[in-house]
Write a structure and sequence with these properties.
The chain is of the alpha+beta class. The protein has one domain: Glutaredoxin. A 4-stranded mixed beta sheet has the order 2-1-3-4, with helices on one face. Strand 3 and strand 4 form a beta hairpin. The longest helix has 19 residues. Keywords: Signal.
Amino acid sequence: MNRLTLLMLSFSLSTFLISGCSSNTYQELMPGSKGEFSVLWITEKTGGYNAFPSVFNKVDKVTMPKSLEEINKKYPKLELKRAPVIVIFNENGVVLTTYNLDEAVEFLENEYGDS
């Protein structure tokens, strides 16, 4: 009986550690507080200047990785197809994935009451 309990406890602990350390989740991309938004913005360009929409200044955080490949490797559950792409998160997860910057800006302006 003692051996079975130890085996079950070991299995539970390893399952917890494996699921907790998974890179398939995107918790670190999400906003830090309820009612906020965060943005993952992957541009086509690897360098140079990208016009930063002013509404992005209102979100909790904006993440701009170097490449689509980097994000797809780290967060495969997002299933992003091409760049440019904008993913908007709230405290519950993804609320919008779009390949159109204007659509992302319009969404955030509506959420923040801007025009």
